[in-house]
Amino acid sequence: MTRQALDPAGRDALRAWLARGAARLNRYAKLIGSVLFLFCSGSGFLALFAYLQAIGRPDLFMPSLSLGPALFAWLFAVALIALAALACLLAPSLILALFLAQRPSDEAARRLLASHAYRIVASGFALLLAAAWIIPLERVYWVFPLLFAWVSLATGLLCVGYPAFRRALGEPLAPRGHRVRGGDLLGFILSASAMLTLAVLAGVFPAAFAIDAYRGGDTDWDLLKALAICLVSMLLAATPTLAFHLTRGDTLRKLRHGALALGLCVALFFLLSLPFFGVLTYAAARVVHLRETEPSTYLISPRYPPSTFAGRGWRAQSRDEDGGRTRIEAFRQYRFGTMNLLCPAALREVRLRRWPDLSSTCLAIREADFTLLPVPETPPTPAVEGRPATGTCVSVRALTRPPRVLRQERVCLFAAPL
Q1: Which residue in 106, 219, 236, 339 has its CB near the most CB atoms, within 10 A?
Q2: Cα–Cα distance between 107 and 254 in angstroms, integer?
């Protein structure tokens, strides 16, 4: 927060606003609690539908509906992932805010510094994407000195061409009344360039999110469109701090405009990258084990004959001791309530963007219609000539004499040689 934000008038206005808000919360506590419960339940179902839509199986939404602890655990995971993604998305704004936090107390000088810093960062975003387009992946380390050199050059040119920018940049670093020499000016430029370069590099996060949510082709025109979406996403990520510092008025007015800019930027980002919500829910599904990528062996009910798994990438077999049931190697792509979506083990490495085309291969099944078989224990390999025996090793811990130092040893049990 800047020094201007700590003025007495702004502090009193913020305190009065918080007091009015607390009084309203106390008056309408029950109503707010009911609305929050309905909102959380609706958000959980919406996130569940977004996940099923992302993997191409929205038909499983209605059979999965159930209101219980699993729904709220799922909502909590989605909210946690969304907050982490929002923090990464706004990383350029946060670094710009940190850069401007200790800058001049004069409001006009701060607005000038904020607008020029935003222009420098925006040009750095464009250079970063151009370098990603031109420079091969094995030479990507050249991007960092290139960005720092460009930001330093732009900052130096602004210091030379705009004395007001130079004074605003050096005020917090130079003592009052101290004459700024060439060496001091170089230090100001390098310190500011380091922070602004860090803000440019933080633009990688919104660009990565936009690329993850992009569903275009692989032609040059599609790649140019993807780069344009990345550039707009980067600019949106740095806009809330600019809106806060360019607003004229007290602290409360600045906060309102900054929050409004934040909401608009997030909404525009989602409009540009609609599948991004599916990316968030896909990541949250792994956290609450709604999706498990570890393959297992399942024993399927006789209602699903072996012909169900023929020619669809399944590894299935029938044994006499299974009583007409089929064994398959699969992993759970979806599990909520009693509904499961089992997919062939060969698809466990498939990326999210390909799932809408491949999800029809998977089997939607209730938990009552299959049994998860335990993982078979692998017997130790006996020793043979020219190769050491292998077996099971365990850790043995024992207490020694005072001062009771904990000692740990490894004991291995090997198979007898043939």
Answers
A1: 236
A2: 12
Q: What's the CA angle centered on 227, arms 221 and 230, to 5 degrees?
A: 145
DSSP, residue by residue, 272-322: HTTTHHHHHHHHHHHHTTSS--S-EEEEE-TTS-GGGGTTTT--EEE-GGG
Helix (H/G/I), strand (E/B), else coil: 408: strand
- Looking at every residue in the chain, the average pLDDT score rounds to 78
Sign for the pseudo-dihedral over CA of 275, 202, 121, 102: positive
Answer whether the bond into residue 403 is a cis peptide, omega within 30°: yes
Residue range 305-318: mean pLDDT, rounded: 79
Predicted confidence at residue 99, as pLDDT, reads 86
**For 161-192, how does the pLDDT look when each residue is reduced to its tens digit (9 = 90+)?**
878 877 777 665 555 555 555 556 777 788 88
Distance CA 54, CA 51 (A): 5
User: Of 293, 376, 282, 370, which Cα lies nearest the Cα of 331?
Assistant: 293
